[in-house]
Amino acid sequence: MKREPVVLTFSGVDRALVTAGPAVLGAVLGIVLPMIARWAVDLEIPLPFRPVWVVVGSMDRWWEVAVQATILAVLGALATMEILRRTALVTVADDEVRLDIADDHVRLARAEIEAVYREGDALVVLDRESKQAFRGEPRADKARLEQAFREFGYPWRDADPFAELYHRWAPETGLLPVAVEAVLSARAVALRKKAGREAGELRDALHKLGYAVRDDGDQQFWRPLVRS
């Protein structure tokens, strides 16, 4: 019998922390910062950016504190929006997995999925050619993800099943075709510039050339794709 899909998102506590926490923290900081600043200035010790501390400590009228608290609360709300924008809602069903990040919606049929695992904060789904069909930060924690994928019979792994095939990339070693070297070189520049979108596009280009890549900071590791 076909089961109802499971939607994996923030737990109740995590949802409260993400949706209200940053704004509340910002408001509280706006109220207490002037008191902390006055206390620090009165100590007459060397302070980095001392003029800033003096300005903040000078805010003692209620409306000045209220304005500052409102500004920091708005910044907290913007931080919440950014967290929601970059994290994935994961839906696990009998026949497919759906992954939704902002306006990006990925649907992967069960038959297309070779492995699912966590790598750091990211959820990774590999297809039958061992390409990364999806990589992103999920809203659910690892335990809930693992439980859902295992219950629905998906190939959950404790780690990357192809980890031993990776080689650290160094320029001009002669181990790779010229086209692959060119893409990895361009991608190294993108990683140094923190250009995530460009690095992702170059990852896709490597897939088309028959290679996978993963990152450790700005260092790249490559392997040939493996068909199942």
Any overview of this molecule?
It contains seven helices and ten strands. Helix 2 (21-42) crosses helix 3 (50-57). The radius of gyration is 24 Å and the shape is flat. The strands form two sheets. Strands 1, 2, 3, 4, 5, 6 and 7 form a seven-stranded mixed sheet that branches. The chain has a three-stranded antiparallel sheet with strand order 8-10-9. It has helices spanning 12-19, 21-42, 50-57, 62-86, 142-151, 178-192, 196-208; strands at 6-8, 87-92, 96-101, 104-109, 113-119, 122-127, 132-138, 167-168, 211-216, 219-224. The model has no long low-confidence stretch (mean pLDDT 91). The protein has three domains: 12-85, no CATH class; 89-151, no CATH class; 163-224, no CATH class. With 228 residues, the protein is α+β, with helices and mostly antiparallel strands. 44% of the residues lie in helices and 24% in strands. Strand 2 (87-92) and strand 3 (96-101) form a beta hairpin.
Features:
228 residues, alpha+beta, seven-stranded mixed β-sheet, three-stranded antiparallel β-sheet, 10 strands
How many structural domains does the protein architecture include?
A: 3
What is the helix/strand order? EHHHHEEEEEEHEHHEE
- The count of strands amounts to 10
Radius of gyration: 24 Å
Short description:
The protein is built from 7 helices and 10 strands. The protein has 228 residues and is α+β, with helices and mostly antiparallel strands.
Topology of this protein?
Layout: E1 6-8, H1 12-19, H2 21-42, H3 50-57, H4 62-86, E2 87-92, E3 96-101, E4 104-109, E5 113-119, E6 122-127, E7 132-138, H5 142-151, E8 167-168, H6 178-192, H7 196-208, E9 211-216, E10 219-224
Parallel strand pairs: 2-7
Antiparallel strand pairs: 1-2, 2-3, 3-4, 5-6, 6-7, 8-10, 9-10
